[in-house]
Amino acid sequence: MQAWNIRRNIDCLLALRDQLGPVYGSEDLCMLFYSMVRREQPRVVVELGTGFGATTAWIATALKELGEGRIYTFDNGSHFQDASVKTFLAQLHGPLLELAQLSQTGAYEACMAWIFEHADVADRVHLVKGEIEFQPRAVEAVAQGEKIDLLFSDFNHAPKTIIQLLGAYLAHMNTTSSIYIDSASTYLPSYWMLDNLVRMLNAKRIPAALRQGLDGDQRTALDELVDTCSFQLVHLVEKAPRSQNSTAWLRIAPDDLFPAHATHVRT
Ligand SMILES: C[S@@+](CC[C@H](N)C(=O)[O-])C[C@H]1O[C@@H](n2cnc3c(N)ncnc32)[C@H](O)[C@@H]1O
């Protein structure tokens, strides 16, 4: 029997990319994540801000092809409530025609369930409808005790939120992992703040702001991560005159002579 692969749901995925992707500038990013997930094989992926699930579905497809891994995705459904969003969704067509109808009367969760079922990835996606929280206990529950391999934050890119995000999540990241923060590279205060922050982390200095609110175990986990890992900041910037045109990629990797993720290195 042929293993499950993207051919099974490509029409739905392309419709999600083409019709819903441009709303949040994720039509190319979702495919970049698909490729990165296939290459790096994360087991635990967390997305903060599901939107219409375009990126979620592409990541989940890669996880399903790999045969393991799960994406935990969070959204309070606030954008979905906007009248203009309902008008936009009513125009969906082709493979998304049924969704156009459902979106006019159905709840956010029902629409997302429709998307993940029709993309045939519902078994890889865990959607939580609710506020994104940074309290230690809430973050601890996100991946149900497992370390996170890929974190995609796509709901707020202000410096204050990024500091809260990194303070809360760094202690839960795997020693080889990635954090992507959408739009942060082309919002100057966040761009500068991230640059400074990464310089401090690489000097093995943890800003006090990152430690605020952490409990003893989390402080220890954060100390260990910073002590044993390096942080690389890459600004993925799009040549597009729109507001959501960048993603800051923070790569975490152990201090080592060997490249992170490599299972085979010629010496
Ligand atoms: C930019 S969209 C996400 C796009 C999606 N990741 C993609 O790639 O297509 C941001 C989403 O975050 C949600 N959101 C904004 N603030 C939130 C909060 N405080 N808690 C939970 N969800 C929030 C909005 O409802 C919206 O759907």
What series of H and E elements makes up the topology?
HHEHEHHHEHEHEHHHEE
Integer-rounded radius of gyration: 19 Å
pLDDT under 50 segments (min length 5)?
none
Q: What's the CATH architecture name of the largest domain?
A: 3-Layer(aba) Sandwich
* Discrete helix count: 11
Report the sheet with the most strands, covering strand number, pairing sense and barrel closure.
7 strands, mixed
What's the structural blueprint in terms of helices and strands?
Elements lengths: L9 H11 L8 H12 L3 E5 L5 H13 L3 E6 L7 H7 L7 H9 L2 H11 L6 E5 L6 H7 L5 E6 L5 H11 L3 E10 L5 H15 L5 H4 L4 H13 E9 L8 E9 L13
Helix pairs in contact: 1-3, 2-3
The structure holds S-adenosylmethionine.
S-adenosylmethionine binds next to helix 3 and strand 2.
Describe the structure.
With 267 residues, this protein is an alpha/beta fold. It folds into two domains: 1-132, Rossmann fold (3-Layer(aba) Sandwich); 159-168 and 183-267, no CATH class. Helix content is 42%, strand content 19%. The chain is built from eleven helices and seven strands. A seven-stranded mixed sheet has the order 3-2-1-4-5-7-6, sandwiched between helices. β4, α8 (159-169) and β5 (173-182) form a beta-alpha-beta unit. α1 (10-20) runs antiparallel to α3 (54-66). The longest helix has 15 residues, at 188-202. The radius of gyration is 19 Å and the shape is globular. The protein starts with 9 loop residues before the first helix and ends in a 13-residue tail after the last strand. Bound molecules: S-adenosylmethionine. Residues 24, 26, 47, 49-52, 54-55, 74-79, 131-132, 154-155 line the site of S-adenosylmethionine (SAM).
